[in-house]
Amino acid sequence: MTTLQLQEQIQQKKSFLCIGLDVDLNKIPQHLLELEDPIFEFNKAIIDATHDLAVSYKPNTAFYEAYGIKGWQSLQKTIHYLNENHPEIFTIADAKRGDIGNTSTMYAKAFFEDLNFDSVTVAPYMGKDSVEPFLAFENKHTIMLALTSNEGAFDFQTLNVNGKELYKKVLETSKTWKNSQNLMYVVGATKAEYFTEIRKIVPDSFLLVPGVGAQGGSLSEVCKYGMNTNVGLLINSSRGIIYASNGFDFAEKARAEALKMQQEMAAILNAME
To answer: Among 212, 196, 205, which Cα is nearest to 229's?
Structure first.
């Protein structure tokens, strides 16, 4: 998927909502556990209930890998279902990969070719030759960790290195890499005060923003400081939507929570016009 196609979806749906499909068998409705593939059935119901409100879905691969081969098969079925039924929706493999060149190439093949995700998250700690193999894939996007929403982000990401915070150096350096136009960045919603500085470095890039909702991030603050002329934001919500209920009405309740966010986003977009 191209960036332009993603932008068109945002305008059509009046939404920049990304729904995280982080499926924990201990949290999903009990009646689903009786089915052959409860993870996929849960995902399918969430997708069916919210696909007109979201422009993106983001399975965190750890929640599938934890269940071994069956979990991976559930992930395969989920991405196939999305690609077959909603090809206009931007898909993110939240895998946070990153290794030396030939290994990164294999990671990229796994997510871009075998599973056919539109994007994958990567960690930049090993530098250029760990990220560029992902960037080589046409019309695929690499979403690099920049400034994350967790407490431990302050251990390294905001450290002053030769007069500049490390996350700023990461952003600046990444722009020099081959095919850097295929980069997007993860910036946590709980770090809203940093968005102004981040936009000075990457004014046109899409930012994937976790942390709105259950983690306490503010949608209005993120939009105030992080939005660009093409919106440039994908706001992720996982637990706040998919676990709105653990009863038979789980999909209906998930839709209600997604609709609240979409309506708030629509209001923000309408105010931009």
So the answer is: 205
Catalytic residue IDs: 96
Task: Name the pLDDT band for 101 (thresholds 50, 70, 90).
Answer: confident
pLDDT in tens, 246-262: 999 999 999 999 999 99
Q: What is the pLDDT of residue 9?
A: 97
116-150, pLDDT tens digit by residue? 999 999 999 999 999 999 999 999 999 999 999 88
**21/93 Cα distance (integer angstroms):** 10
Q: What pLDDT is stored for residue 215 in this prediction?
A: 59
Mention every residue, 6+ apart, whose C-beta is less than 8 A from residue 143: 92, 119, 120, 121, 122, 183, 184, 185, 186, 208
CA distance 195 to 147: 10
Rounded Cα distance between 226 and 209, Å, is 10
